[in-house]
Amino acid sequence: MRPILLKGHDGPLTCVKYNKDGDLLFTTCKRGRICLWYSDDGERIGTYNKHNGAVMYVDVSFRCDKLASASMDYSARLWDVETGKMFREWNLESGARCVSLSCGDKQLAVLTDPWGDQSSMIHIFDTASDKLISKIAMPSASRTNRALWGPLNKSIITCNESGSLMSWDPSTKQCTIERNDHNLAIPDFTFHQKDQMTLITASTDMSATLYDTVTLEPLKSYKTDRPVNSAAISPLMDHVAVGGGQSADKVTTTAGRAGKFQSVFFHKIYETEVGSVRGHFGPINSIMFNPDGRSFTSGGEDGYVRIHHFDPEYFGYE
Description:
mainly beta; four-stranded antiparallel sheet; globular
């Protein structure tokens, strides 16, 4: 399985994201650039360049005509995917860490970092205008890392540095469910791409956990020997992939293999490790399966994006 190496960023990767059809790949980094690639062969299509700070997360609309971005330059922006033109900008009180377009793409949830006495905050905007619909304040003083719309916009799921996974009702602004199954921070979580009925968390306590999206009941747990920064559920096979590795501040004193920077695959049902793919020489910060399940992409602290197309033998593995 030979990877396609993409070198379009001059800083650590923060997010890799496919569109719904899986033919386009968006990548972001801490130097403020958003790159767009063809996911099949890794050809670069273009860049979105107006952010002045680290771009932490992106989300793409169902029809792949709009791209939302969150940046540490205290702004969230909405772009035209085809032309690269920015047609919405929301200025915020602190750095934006996450964005999520609602089902139907009519609302945008923007998560901002704590600032001063203010905790992390979810801002919900109307994408057709600059109108702020509502704000939801996070209760904890610890930073919230993700805030993503749940199925049919009935909830917003968040995770934070304390290891909590929470479900919020956007209409009442109240937390309806809270889980504290992880001992350390949860940097990221992702939904099953086909139906959003399950989600998987990645935690620096060296584990990833599969949850039911509606009840937030833990279903399966995957134990590793490294801090996990990102995890994804295969839409085709009964597999999950996790990525992470030794923290970035210790990478310079560690060999690539000793730092455990591989993408590790587990059987989703039996919780057993089924294989790993090495290549990065820094921690993996983001990992995602193509919606067709036939490839996956990882982005690392080393500034490289690696697209892996699975060999035919992979699909015969049970």
